[in-house]
Amino acid sequence: MFDAGRQRGVAPCYRCLFPEPPPPEFAPNCSEAGVLGVLPGLAGVLQATEVLKLLLGIGEPLVGRLLRFDALGMRFRETGIRPDPQCPVCAPGVPFPGYIDYAAFCRGG
């Protein structure tokens, strides 16, 4: 899970892992790329579980860890990740740069 705004500079954000958005031609939408229909639901359930753990102060949130799921092999893998001290979004002392309009960026994707 990425920094939920609670540990700026301690837990990584999405831009720590992927500093630049890919060019539009490398960012197809779900219908173009083909997404197994149950995967967005699974991702939503996992995210909801993480939110509840944070709100209720229970369990061990995935802060600083990336959980990857291989649906075809039915395997979960976990990788520890650290914040980028030069991150343009979450490095300490860096003002928030604003949001990217991904629909416009990816030509309506």
Largest sheet: 2 strands, antiparallel
**Residue fraction in strands:** 5-15%
Supply the number of structural domains. Answer: 1
The strands making up the biggest β-sheet line up spatially as: 1-2
Q: Regarding quaternary structure, how should these chains be classified?
A: single chain
Mean pLDDT: 82
Distance between the termini: 24 Å
Total DSSP helices: 4
Give the name of the CATH superfamily. NAD(P)-binding Rossmann-like Domain
For this entry, give a set of tags:
single chain, 109 residues, 4 helices, 28% helix, alpha+beta, globular, two-stranded antiparallel ribbon, Rossmann fold
Outline the fold blueprint:
Blueprint: H1 14-17, H2 30-33, H3 38-56, E1 65-70, E2 75-80, H4 102-105
Antiparallel strand pairs: 1-2
Organism: Stenotrophomonas maltophilia
InterPro entries: ThiF_NAD_FAD-bd (IPR000594), Ubiquitin-activating_enz (IPR035985)
Pfam family, one: ThiF
How would you describe what is shown here?
- The chain is an alpha+beta fold.
- It has one domain: 3-Layer(aba) Sandwich (Rossmann fold), CATH 3.40.50.720.
- 28% of the residues lie in helices and 11% in strands.
- It contains 4 helices and 2 strands, in the order αααββα.
- The protein has helices at 14-17, 30-33, 38-56, 102-105; strands at 65-70, 75-80.
- It has a two-stranded antiparallel sheet.
- A hairpin with a 4-residue loop joins strand 1 and strand 2 (75-80).
- The longest helix has 19 residues, at 38-56.
- The protein is globular and about 40 Å long.
- It starts with 13 loop residues before the first helix and ends with a helix.
